Amino acid sequence: MPSTVPAYGTEAAERLASMADVTASDAALRRFLHGLPGVDAVGLQARAAALGTRSIKTTAKAYAIDLAISMIDLTTLEGADTPGKVRALCAKGINPDPTDRTVPKVAAICVYPDMVATAKAALAGSGVHVASVATAFPAGRAALPVKLADTRDAVAAGADEIDMVIDRGAFLSGRYLAVFEEIKQVKEACRREDGSAAHLKVIFETGELQTYDNVRRASWLAMLAGADFIKTSTGKVAVNATPPVTLLMLEAVRDFRATTGVQVGVKPAGGIRTTKDAIKYLVMVNETLGDDWLTPDWFRFGASSLLNDLLMQRQKLSTGRYSGPDYVTVD
To answer: Is 231 part of the annotated catalytic residue set?
Structure first.
């Protein structure tokens, strides 16, 4: 992922400017979001299920495994996190399999804001990014000044990416403009003194949004507010990323680029634990969006346990033997 927000061309800027009236008032934004096409739930689920049946073998599977590894945001978000644990996770992100230097690095290490400086130092010169959750993650229940301070602190400590959570209470009660303005202000807080900015991933917590229509509305709302990525979940609730929800978000970023010329990334997070699952998501990206999104710049997996299964499957492909969990490091 580039270290600064991409500079879009004149045409994209003009298209975005032409949509300014959509966010001019709460009424206008509500009218636009509720005017989006309704989601055919049965059709969406059927399409996601059908894409999950694609068979990927041998060379294609080996490529998919390496691609998935390179797309992982390797994550530790626990109250018991220590500097030592974070440094160990960073070492694993840089060199996932110490016995095989051909394994690609992960995309990023994701930590709480107070661990950003530790991760930044451990990852120096590696090319692996530091992502930090902010805005009172995971509940998002804090005053806006607190959320903005949380974001600025993480960016000042060296975060390359910020994963913020939206105010689901405001969204579900129809206060769309309040959510829009909060995302805009957090995005501004991602800006550094030199004019560059940390990338902003906006987390919806789709398991709490209740309907597919709400997921589509949240996707457009976040993208209009300037999200660089839209992300399904925090990984801290019962229902996290699912194939239908991710497919819906992929369709949203496709339609947003067709409308505005601006490309936005997608990050499913929580509950993706196996190589089989990861490959299903990559097939979904390929079939819905094509090669443009098949890169860590535009698609990520939020995961803490997926990497080990990918490594074991990779070892099986290269040796013909399934080595088991004792042959990979414990996070």
So the answer is: yes
SS3 string of the chain?
A: CCCCCCCCCHHHHHHHHHCHHHHCCHHHHHHHHHCCCCCCHHHHHHHHHHHCCCCCCHHHHHHHHHHHHHCEEEECCCCCCCHHHHHHHHHHHHCCCCCCCCCCCCCEEEECHHHHHHHHHHHCCCCCEEEEECCCCCCCCCCHHHHHHHHHHHHHCCCCEEEEECCHHHHHCCCHHHHHHHHHHHHHHCECCCCCECEEEEECCHHHCCCHHHHHHHHHHHHHHCCCEEECCCCCCCCCCCHHHHHHHHHHHHHHHHHHCCCCEEECECCCCCHHHHHHHHHHHHHHCCHHHCCCCCECEEECCHHHHHHHHHHHHHHCCCCCHHHCCCC
114 is known as an active-site residue:
no
Rounded to the nearest integer, the mean pLDDT of the chain is 92
Contact 69, 102 (CB under 8 A): no
Flag whether the pTM goes above 0.85: yes
Query: pLDDT digits over 38-87, tens only?
Result: 999 999 999 999 999 988 888 899 999 999 999 999 999 999 999 999 99
For the question of residue 267 being annotated catalytic, the response is yes
The predicted structure's pLDDT at residue 322: 66
Q: Which member of 163, 228, 277, 297 is catalytic?
A: 163
Of 92, 120, 201, 231, which one is the catalytic site residue?
Answer: 231
